[in-house]
Fold this sequence. Notes:
By secondary structure, this protein is an alpha/beta fold. The chain is built from 10 helices and 19 strands.
Amino acid sequence: MISYWEREALLQYDHLIIGSGIVGLSTAISLQEKYPKQRIAVLERGVLPTGASTKNAGFACIGSLTEILDDLTHLSEKEVVDLVERRRNGLATLRQRLGDEAIEYLECGSYEIIGERELPALEELERINTLLKPMLGQQAFSLCSEKRSDFGFASSFAKAMILNHCEGQIHTGKMMRALLDKARTVGVQVLTGVTVSRIEETEKQVNLVAYPSGKPTHQYQFVAPQVYICTNAFSKQFLPNLDLQPGRGQVLVTHPIPNLPFEGIFHFDEGYFYFRNHGKRVIFGGGRNLDFEGEQSTQLETTPLIMNALETHLRENILPNTPFEIDMRWAGVMGFGKTKVPIVKRHSERIAIGIRMGGMGVAIGSLIGAELASLG
């Protein structure tokens, strides 16, 4: 039951965004900067964002060599360059908006560990550097195999190493807190614990039928002339015909390791596995390629198959001579499709969508938010 006052003043907005992850908050901030006198709200079903925005490993990526080579099997060279540029520009937007100190951004580069199976990729390094250099203004990749012994990895694991000069790392939690603070500072209202169950578009407005999470019988109706869907992998509940599949990412973090032998961020197995240090801890995630079908899930839970694989890699390949203990485990859900190109478009006159980050939401999310706001 709602009152007249609530209906007239608390449930009506000029713009409503569904989803308070990186894309949703970035869209709201961009809209509020564009329309400073209009009322803008973000609706989030969880107490915290539900997808991958707060559950990633804190990588600020544009793509490793083997990832880009894989993208070239699905996209043209121009499309791949455009996609890498959008990731780079998205990171620049995020950093300019929040500041490097607030998000603990470090442009430290990243390392790709090349195993036996990926060795042929080294023959493509010069070609990819040539392809990307006009856009990046610098060489993206260089061999650094001499560092293998410095980091203490198992020799059978790291046959070669590549340094990506254009990537970095962030503190995911501080980034999201800074985005929330920025949104509220510019006047965006962020409402958590609100589950949107139905979208009804009329000639003059969009009605979002919603309820407090866990109380489906207590329904509200939010109203706005413009609505933006920013729920990434969860968006098929509203638009079932989208080219979109969830991809769960499972992550663990160790307790502090006194003699941790490496610092930096690392990828291997075509980017499906990734790890980094955070202080003296190791954050390690990935492995969905071990069970693509099983990991096409929106369930926020870990599985023995993936967790055992992560621990085995830590014990045998990454920290072969260093004891460690696991502190926490968690899972986030990313959005994928036939390609990694995001979907940013008008679904109808009053509804726009910005989804399918392809596992690169940290990098590209701020730019997608700006592009989505430009449709409003």
